[in-house]
Amino acid sequence: MSTAAAELETAGLLVEAIASCYKPSPTQHVWQWAEEHVFLDNQQAPGRAGYYDSTKTPWTRRMQELDADPRVDEIIIPKSSRSGVTEAFFNIMRRAPHYSPGHVLYMLQNRDKARSVMQRRIIPTMRKCAGEYFTGNLDDVGKSLLRLVNMEIHVHGAGSESPFTEIAFAKIGIDEADDTMAVIDGEETTADLARSRQRDVPGSKLYIFGKMRYRGGLLWSEYIGGTQDKLLLPCPHCNDLIELHEGGLRYEHLAADLVSGDVPGGYDLRELIEGTFYECPACEKPIEEKWKRAMLEACAWRPTPTSADVAPSGQHFRVAEREGLDKYPAPFPGRVSMQISDFYTLHEKLRWGHLALMLLEAQRNPHRLAHFVINHTGRGYNAQEASISATEFTRWIGGRKNPDSGEVHGRRYLRGQCPIDPVLVSATGDVQRDLWKFVICAWEIDGSCWVIDWGVVLDARGFDEQLDRKFPIMGDVDGRAVSHDLCL
């Protein structure tokens, strides 16, 4: 290529870059634009190849609409595993070269994962929907940097200061925030550094999202400072707006013999998955899974009230009071926070029945319960509150060795089995925030106590289910079972 031709090509690229900055304002929201321009293949959307379809994750529309809202500076989203939030952020990034060019930073847990996302999801889709903005220089398409004619896209791993040292970013996305964010040099967090690099960039946006691992963690701290919006759906019976959560699942009517069945509690697996429904907290009528899609199309995001006393009529929240009221009695200006759970998902293998099954399986295992809360509820798990150690009960559990004396106490029996013919069976519950600990014990006439079972459940209904259980008496020839007599 001659010098004159090269200069002409360079000039043409500059003209295109300048012209892109003066495109008319878009008439579509990001998600509407993506439905026409973003095609995802089987590598980017396994088993779901095709144009982006917001009806599969309609709750992400608001996040994409807020990108154009000048009143909003930050969007914080604790999410469940099947939420579509990451794809929504990528849509915002994909459209940016066309209407709002500016440098973008995407951060993930580690450098290798971030680079993998760049190669598998970012570069291929950017070629399809913004190919005219590629420079044509192979050096501009790298492992951690995609340089376009009018902006740059960077990806970085966790705990790094380097992306914040030189470049001012118009959009920053911190994914899996509880794993990606860190406290750097004992003072600033990753989010603080991000804010510092955006302070002088007009119209900049900070997105922080991911599964919330712990209440009290970095993502929780960002979330409580925002509006704490919840997704409310209209009940098809009474039209009140309701938040979906585990407390509304109903499957007790499916219980079979409590000492048999495929699922803990005696439930038949197929019947549990097919027959679980949601009960409206307002009219107490059953809501079927098949109605969920239509309800989602009429969904509304609403901020959590300051307290139940000021909750708007016709709106029903899981907890009608802001978290962290002592620190943030009102949202930080410009910060919108939203929480989404898998109780809203349309995924065929995460129906309400599947979630009920996972919840039942988790009730006697704190580790499974933690996994359920973190991956499916969008809420953080407090390990200190929820852990119930077996060593706390070793003085009373038969066949266990006392850690102090080394003495083996009583006869050996299985958890969930009553080793005696008791005069009394007690169930004790202890509520700590939104988790319930329980212990069920059998008593002899002389005051001897035998621990039958213990665990953690998520709500009062889960505790009631424990009260309804029957425990077989070990060695009883008649196959008798006992249930609780006294609840404390």
Radius of gyration: 27 Å
Discrete helix count: 14
Number of strands: 24
Low-confidence stretches: 257-261, 384-396
Going by helix content, strand content and strand pairing, the class is alpha/beta
Beta-strand residue percentage: 15-25%
How many domains would you count in the coordinates? 3
- Specify the biggest β-sheet: 11 strands, mixed
| CATH homologous superfamily caption of the largest domain | P-loop containing nucleotide triphosphate hydrolases
The residue fraction in helices comes out at: 25-40%
What's the CATH first level of the largest domain? Alpha Beta
Using the 3D structure, state the CATH architecture of the largest domain.
Answer: 3-Layer(aba) Sandwich
Shape: elongated
Instruction: Using the coordinates shown, work out and report the CATH topology of the largest domain.
Output: Rossmann fold
Taking the alpha carbons of the first and last residues, their distance comes to 86 Å
Mean pLDDT: 84
